[in-house]
Amino acid sequence: MSIRPTLETRKAQPTLEGAGVHLHRAFGFHDPSELDPFLLFDDFRNDIPEHFLRGFPWHPHRGIETITYVLAGEVDHGDSLGNTGTLGAGDVQWMTAGSGILHQEMPRGNAKGQMHGFQLWANLPGSLKMTAPRYQDVQAKEIPEIIDDDGTKVRVVVGEFWGKRGPVDGIAADPQYLDISVPPGVRKTFKVDTYRRAFAYVFAGAGVFADASKPAGVLLEKEVMGQEVNIRDMSGDRTLIRFGTGDEVTVQAGEEGIRFLLISGAPLQEPVAWHGPIVMNTQQEIQQAIRELRNGTFIRAAH
């Protein structure tokens, strides 16, 4: 067994999307080979309704799949195929954009005004980029939750883990998407397929992710005895951890415990041409999609 080393640890960056939604982006519009097959990860947790209520009005997607995971509040969604629905706390939506879809996502806060959730973009291989669009909405009660003897809790959103399989299936990237909570002070190891690219995203508490030789946290400047020094701090809220190769990930939870997403997928190793929410293999395909958006032929008739 080999523990995956930490290649990079960084904070998600604040950004604006949609009609002015304040969110934090862990990665996206970067070197797509880094976390292939994943393209983008957004953390849209917010406690100020004015920062999210304008939502994400009608916009196109082609060539990707999106996985939306809601923790608090609700997201009303609709698309050009006539699908509508509402995602609530703990619910998941997987959308295959395929050949093209227009959709909108409009968030609503809970009784406390909170809107918390994440969206992950996974690339489609060239052979499936023009497949028919489809949806899968999954309610919280359908997602298996496992509690280990030491109190570690795992929700299996996608993939198989500890003998349980998540309800979302048919995603081309064949990802494993786990929501993991480790109690205070517990050191825990999780298996990850050797051939997958993997990352963790911490969103509550703090902890240290370790390889076989040394722990790695966020490199921060802090004042100690009146002097600025660089130290390794625990990986806390809104921290992305990108792992190297190996078949295990180990974390040491801090004094408040730690909750994080552990996500992995098989790399596609294909060329990526990217224009906002449209991701193809060549610039010619991107230009074709833009022409179709302009002339009204972007949405393909259902067969």
From TrEMBL:
Q: Residue limits of the Pirin C-terminal domain? A: 177-298
Which GO terms of the molecular function aspect are on file?
metal ion binding
Q: Which cofactor does it need?
A: Fe cation
Domain named Pirin N-terminal: residues: 22-121
Q: Give the binding site residues for Fe cation.
A: H59, H61, H103, E105
Q: Which Gene3D superfamilies match?
A: Jelly Rolls
Tell me if Iron is a UniProt keyword of this record.
yes
Database matches in InterPro entries = Pirin (IPR012093), Pirin_C_dom (IPR008778), Pirin_N_dom (IPR003829), RmlC-like_jellyroll (IPR014710), RmlC_Cupin_sf (IPR011051)
Please give the Pfam families that the UniProt record associates with this protein.
Pirin, Pirin_C
Task: Supply the alphabetized keyword list.
Answer: Iron, Metal-binding
Cofactor note text: Binds 1 Fe cation per subunit.
Which family would the database say this protein is a member of? Belongs to the pirin family.
> Know the name of this protein?
Pirin family protein
Which species? Answer: Roseinatronobacter bogoriensis subsp. barguzinensis
